[in-house]
Design goal:
The complex is a heterodimer of chains A (about 350) and B (about 400). With about 350 residues, chain A is mainly α. Helix content of chain A is about 70%, strand content about 0%. A two-stranded antiparallel sheet of chain A has the order 1-2. In chain A, helix 5 packs across helix 11, helix 6 packs across helix 8 and helix 7 packs across helix 8. By secondary structure, chain B is mainly alpha-helical. Chain B has two domains: about 90 residues, no CATH class; about 220 residues, MetI-like fold, CATH 1.10.3720.10. Chain B has 15 helices and no strands. Chain B starts with about 30 loop residues before the first helix and ends in a 12-residue tail after the last helix. The chains are: A mainly alpha (about 350), B mainly alpha (about 400).
Chain lengths: ~350, ~400
Amino acid sequence: MTDLLDNPVSTSADTTTTVVSETFGAPPPTPRLITLRRTRGDRVFKGGVTLSGVLVLSIMVAVGLFLAIEAAQALSATGVSFLTTPDWQPDRNKFGISAVLLGTVLIAVVAVSIALPISIGAALFITEVAPKWLKSTLIAAVDLMAAVPSVVYGLWGLFLLQGHIIGLSRWFNTWLAWLPFFDVARADPNSPLSSATVYSASTFVAGVVVAMMVMPIQCVVMREVFSQVPIGEREGAFALGSTRWGMIRVVSLPFGRGGIIGGSMLGLGRALGETIAVLLVISPRFDINFHILEAGSNSVSSLIALRYSEASGFGLSALMAAGLALFAVTLVVNFTASWFVARSRSGADSEA
Amino acid sequence: MSTPLTVLPPPPSRNSPPQQRRALGRLSRQDLMMMLGAGISATATTMLLFGQFTSLSGSLGFLCVGFLVFLATYAVLVSLTEDRPAVIDRVMSVLLTSCMLIAGVALVSVIVFTLFRGRAALLKSNFWSQDLSAAGPLDPLEIGGIAHAIVGTLIMISLALVLTVPLGVACSVYITETRGRGASLVRTVVTAMTALPSILAGLFIFATWILILGYERSGLAASISVSIMMLPIIIRSADVVLRLVPGNLREASAALGAPQWRTVWHVVLPTARSGLTTSVILGVARGIGETAPVLLTAGFTSTLNYNPTSGPMVSLPLAAFELVRSPQPTQIARGFATSAVLMLLVLLLFTIARVVGGRPAGRLSKRQSRRAMAHSVKDAERFESSHRAPHGAPTPRRQVGAT
């Protein structure tokens, strides 16, 4: 050790000459074979960690498989008509998910179409407009909003929002009834004495409540993406004389497109699976209903929550089938979302 | 000789006053006045519209119409002095700000409304100390409380933590530290499972644990179903945190001859400690608020039950949900107070997560870095003394801990 340190220059010079002569004469050196010999502790570690991975994997696969196996009984009894029947009477062998799945999708679509512009705007406000001292507070507030339990949003929607939103529903129905989904069958907009109950407990109200829960989730993903916009491109836009909105339009939004799509689909996945808030707000009905302002709606998860206790063995299997269909839809939505986020240039390290 | 293409301004002379830095982001006085003017005009116009000219009504409608009028007036005012891109920029800034305002107002209204409706019950001491067994739906708020739900939530979530934290952390270590097909398969399946609607986790436990295995509805069943919900969330976020641990720390540890388990135990996990805590707390915040799986698996009771393995047990969100379904105003008030307690609990957890996990992996707080520095000074002294003992000649002491 001391020899090497005493004469470092000569040693290094020696090795260099050897290497050079070797490269010219002999064939290039083959890389040394590196073998990994684990210590006993490492073997225990590897085994334990792998075991936990296998355990988690088997739990997750068990949930999926179990749902599929249990659902098979109901699915084989109805066949394709499971997808088309609106009723839910498993004891009379007359049930299907067309109405509930449609209700679920409509609630989720209403929620996302309300939440999307707000979350994009809020994310852009946090990254571009807000003064520095306000930023961390706003980020914390949005994160907090994402953590508020759904039952709290449900109570808020049922007791506070519902009363205020009916005026808006009536306005939509009065002026936009020519759009088929804003039409309400039993409402007469010209009569001042018409009851407000035709507008309550509707898909629209449930959608607005779910939008409140979905908005922060989308906003978190989008803010993450917008904060990764390369500083050079931003400053380039400003240096070319762009206004702030001009910069956002030509730099931030194109850069964050993957994050916007991915974030909104993540929100959609969450909206599809929401149970309690929807269950509190809607009054269930079992028919194909596109009129989002009309009283009554339904969703798969609230159907399960309502019917699981009185269900017989076969009824439970039918509920499992409905749950499986919902799970399949959310799975597709979530994988599409992560594909979009991963594929876009911006989503390199943004996580949901 | 042609004229120069670029003309440089003369350098500032020494006598000229120092240049003032212009604040770019600040609102100028003119902007403020324009907003104020547009706001007043919009309020007045909307009041006229609602009160005099048309039959519009409703506070929400008033706000919507007023906002649109405000935007139009503001655009016109700005266009008096600015060109088109600037007008668009101002209007869009107002729109972005109002998006944030909507979100903020929603959050504040949710919190304030819940606290307000629950205030009567929240302020009673019996609400925190009694259960609901003695209180019928018609009894006043002086009787009964939600101690059983608080205890139930705490028991359920601690059981869920016991199940999920070791498993979740070990699994995320498996995903990040062992590379291979197994790890990526587990990661994919866990990602898929974050999409699992919470009601299905409850339905799974309801069908297997309660119907097939024949156990009764209990706190244990509920905490297993909540664990199924929390596990993917914890694994996903712990995975992200562990991937952020710098690779050269692992390499340095390996180069010092540490086996892999020592590297993980002494380097990777401590480095990511704050992030791991955050991911666990976020999982807990989600798990505490889950109503649907608990609804299916815990049963409902109004008595205090400390035993998670037998008898129904109720959690805060479930109690709130069941209470507000009653038509009695006192029950609804209790329901609101219950959800306020739940919200405060989540708020508390969230604050803890913020305080603990505010910094990225490997970045130490002041106290932590001081402790590490003291530790390395002690180590240096130990090495020095052990070196000095056999040779006798003291080596010159080097500066330790300055980096």
